[in-house]
Amino acid sequence: MTALQIDNLSKRYGTLHALREVSFAVESGEIFGYLGPNGAGKTTTLRAILGLVRAEAGEVRLFGEKIGRAENRAEIGFLPGELHLYGNMTGAALLNYFAGFRPQQPPKLRPKLLDALEVDYTVLARRVKFLSHGTKQKLGLVIAMQHDPRLLLLDEPTLGLDPLMQQALHELLLDCAKRGRAVLFSSHILSEVKAICHRAAILRAGELVAVESLATLREKMIRRLHVRFRSAVPKTLAQTAGIVRAHFSEREATLWVQGDINPMLRCLAASEVEHLVFPEPELEDIFMSYFQPQEQDCA
Predict the structure, then answer these.
(1) What is the pTM of this model?
(2) Among 43, 69, 166, 193, which is least packed by CB within 10 angstroms?
(3) Tell me, what's the pLDDT at 215?
């Protein structure tokens, strides 16, 4: 079943086009990545889904129904990117307060969430304004997820979480998907989307660049490599299969590689390499895969 359907959603703030005819769908049982740099329009999309902002054009459907129905919005769990909590309430009171907005949906997942995110009774007994940023983020996640919603909208959910807690959250979301829940995972960090998402939409300046499976994204992705040789750069390197762009400077080369990296590795292995850096791809590398013209720059 399609949990979330967005068709040609457009939103302007004065002369700024925050969203331009954005369309995608999230299925039940799917973790859907929503990738884009800060300011791309991800948060505006989530607010439009919730009815917090009114779009100029387009349509949002939740479980086949238009967003105007309060019953459908009750099936959503939402974590905003800028989380503001009531500082004078204790953690426990805060969780109960938000649970009270859904009397028909008891917070049945709360114990499991608190255990997984390592939030104990001593934390819950403290007033929120005295808690760390990471602990507040954990409370925000519990608020969003404790009633076991059919659709989760998460805006930068790992913000402030250490690596162990990030992994714990990933496991919780994978469990949600296994139980048929839909998750819209908004982030500007490519690695965490790659870790758990089935598909991803890529947003840039309010426009969708692509909606792809993660396998297709990996195939299309252009990665950057920097290498320094002990002697001159091999003359055949720029023509090696898989290298779509190259920049040379004395004994150093910066390479942009797409697809199979083995031809490049064989070429490098035939020379004396002094230093090599081949980092994990970043969001900018995905944008280059779709926008950057193929060129070779030899200096």
Answers:
(1) 0.84
(2) 69
(3) 82
